[in-house]
Protein 1
Amino acid sequence: MRSAVSLALVTSLIGSALPVAAQQHTPMAGPIAPSITREATRFATVEQSKPVDSEWSRVRKLAPGTELIVIVKGSQPSNRYFVAGDESDLTVLNVGAPSLPTAARDVLRDLASTHPEYFLAAQKGGQFAVQKNVRVGPDGVFVADRKVADLAQIVEQYGRHDITEITTAKIESNPVGCALAGYYGGGIVGGIPGTVIGGAVGRDTGPALVGMMVGWSMGAVYVYRKCRHKPEKLIYSAP
């Protein structure tokens, strides 16, 4: 579609440029029309050469701080955290540096979720003091004025064509929170249908109550499992 639009633009510009060149007789008229034509042709060529990659759009829609497994060409899979992505690049957080204290890793992961723009700004000279005496800037990451990592060690940027595959990491959610989700969600997922089915089978409240309890229990288990374990999900695979 974009290629067709670009070709239409070229045709339109060429068609409009030629009459101008024919009507003008000043010395400036000659170079202008060919210049417009060359630029329009170049624009169409660039547009046609851009690869159409629908899968990459899923990368751009990732929530900040999402844990990923990234495979770069010639490298082993590595766990990273999503910071930002555009049509050509991926920026991720790497908290695997051995020199990073555990507390600093937690702060950086939280920062990737809440203020990912801090990392991008730090690359351009910004300085940010965050929790637990952690400071992030172009000169690196500091904990209580002690440098624990270079900025390039924790903020990594890859071109789209350097990446082989991106998947979301498997997530093990908090069991207490998932138990609560299972309790309330089970009532909706299983309890209500169970009540309807039980009521249709019997003429009194007994079958309806039995159906509600059975359905609620099954629904609670289903919701708990879905909440507790989220498998890896393929986001991008290079063509």
Protein 2
Amino acid sequence: MIKFFRRIRYDLMKKNKTGKYFKYAIGEIILVMVGILLALQVNNWNEQRKMNSQEQELLDGLEVEFTINFNRLENVLQLHQNSIDSANKIMTYFNTDISDIPEVKFDSLQFHIQNVWTFNPRKGLLNSVITSGQINLISNVELKNQLASFEDMVNDMEQEIQEISLLGTQFYSTTSEYINIGKQNALGYKTFVNEGFQSDYDRFFKDFRVYNYINNETTWSYDLLGEEIELMRSIKRILELIKQELN
């Protein structure tokens, strides 16, 4: 093709048709530029299509990961709500007559209070996406921001859990003076229970330290529950945005 154009230019110069030669040369330059622009456009289109395919694959994986996190957090939320409800209930028995209340009821309430439930999110793909810079493949700005802030929200929750765990340790060391822990654990797990050791809930409900431990732990638990609810909203929003992009 280039030889063909060159031959035409040569014939025009040979016949001294300089004006036509320059017009033809300009037309040839324009034609070459158009060809280059078309090639660049095709290349950009191919690159964009490749990036879109990578983004879709990435979103598929994140949808799976955050669906798992949603289910895990939903379970932890329910357990924490049960723990708070149990704490509020058991607080009503301090300095009251408990003679007609079966001991197993207190054991059940204690079981829910003494356990610290933790949310362990699955975030292997998310961490890889952020550290590798692949998060820039995600075109939705809100989704990108939600994903980037997820780790900070989880870290804030973990700080609350550490405080609750510390209070729980202090609470356990005090209540173990009055309670046969084996009976409480037997409500949820297989464990050895020595019936020769009896719980003393009369003393338990007269100990001001126990009252304060439960009160403080419940306060922290409410804070934790609030952060978990916020995180749940964030996960829901992330899943909504992912579905929008996949559709």
Protein 3
Amino acid sequence: MTSTALRTRFIAAAVVAVVVAASVVGWTMLRPKGLPLGFAASNGRIEATEIDIAAKIAGRLAEIAIREGDFVHDGQVLARMDTATLDAQLKEAQAALSQAEIGVDTARSLVSQRDAECGTAQAVVLQRQAETDAAVKRLARTEELTAAGHASRQLLDDDRARVLASRAGVGAARANLAAANAALGTARSQVIAAQSHVDATRATIQRIQADIDDSVLRAPRDGRVQYRVAQPGEVLGAGGVVLNMVDLSDVYMTFFLGTNQAGRTAMGGEARIILDAAPQYVIPATVTFVADVAQFTPKTVETAEERQKLTFRVKVSIAPELLRQHIHYVKTGLPGMAYVRLDPATPWPAHLQERLPHD
């Protein structure tokens, strides 16, 4: 081998050595800092509670007032269902209510009439009773006069017949009074029935009005619309989904920790989240869930060795106040790392100190 070839091979070897050395130094300087004792870490993804905005009753979708990706507020109108049929039913029920209220007035008038008839029948009873009392007294005097020979036998027979007729009149008057009282009771029951019909019709109106109100689909809370499931003009069944939105006041990351670390993770403990898309920010969070039952590590944990171990599912949530301040930055599905402080007495290392976009 010539000296020139030897020199070329030597230079190439030297260049390779320099590159390897530089790579080692670079990797050493840039590798993630290790966690001190008292902390645990695992990978996960940002998640949020999803909400389906659905039609309560079957009908045609008339309008969607927002677009995919829009931020919406609690109570904001998102979509409207066609209410032509419900509007017609409402008018029909309102007409039935007017008719039912007239029925109540008529029944009350009948009660007044029957009450007056009862008063008249009671007066007739008193009149017939008074006539009977007078006839009895007249008969007694006639009997005395007849015994003394001062009155005829015919007069005595007439007075006796008058007493019997008066007593029969009292019985008839009392029967009429009982009939009048029964008619009064029937009239009062008719008032109750008519009032019940009014109440039932009003309840029908309230139900129809509630269906009309529910045909305006509103946001149940602040959030962002993810996608439209239906389009205006489509006919949906009861419970048919129109929109899907995420509740940006309930954002969290779920991950898995080994037995030893999960056993030291306390509910309400401090945590930090660093997203792959924004490693310059350190987001504070709180442990809001630690599973009671262990499970095998899911496939999202990369190494086969790790998947052989039992782990516990842990969830850390971001404070709603913080989410409201940075709501336009919140996006679900972003991967990242979650860090949990197992020992409250251990301070957070410098690279895990809170750093937010406004800092």
Protein 4
Amino acid sequence: MEHELWLTALFNNYLAGLGNAILSLVGMHAENPTRPWQNWIVMELFVVALLMILVAVLRSSLSVERPGSIQHLFEEIYGFLDYQSHEVGIHHTEKYINYFGTLFIFILAMNLIGIIPAFESPTMEPAVPAALAVCTFLSYNAMGLGANGIKYLAHFAGPVWWMAWLMIPIEIISHLARPLSLTVRLYGNMFAGEQVISVFLGLVKPLVPVIFMGLHVFVALVQAYVFTALAMIYVSMATAHGHDA
């Protein structure tokens, strides 16, 4: 059994009934009904709560004349993601920037929470990257249908109609491989980074692992960007057929 974080222990001690009820709604049952909450679920909920509080604080202090440091940070993130969206060829980025921003900030926050010794990164559990990958898969296909209508399905047949018999299976396999690729990339890098930090924390003095924590921050940022950038590329490919030029 995995080591239970203090926050997970609180959930299991006081909210075990709620956890079992939620699992039963989706047709699942906990191995240990007295401890239904797992670290990755609790940490994911904790990150969501932190982001909601941050957004509430930010919204109450928004200002055009005197923007604060948090507002500046979010404006920079928005500007960067908007620029990247244009760079990969997305038209009307205002339709999709909300998803990209949510994806980037959520993944980054989950990656970074593991730096705190009392917590763990939810993204080092395969279920979390897999869920994000499936959401991205469903989202870019929905965006493609929204931009092109039923004509979106025509791109699976390829540019030449008489090659459709070959291109359709290839395109389907290619699209189905994307969620797997997104999942393995994010999970593998975050799990490896977490293990490296844990090993060095146990071997050397507390000051030395600061270097590796800095590396963890870098990996967390890069992986959040890579996941979001790939989502942008998929959206660009899905929506491009709806534009003339």
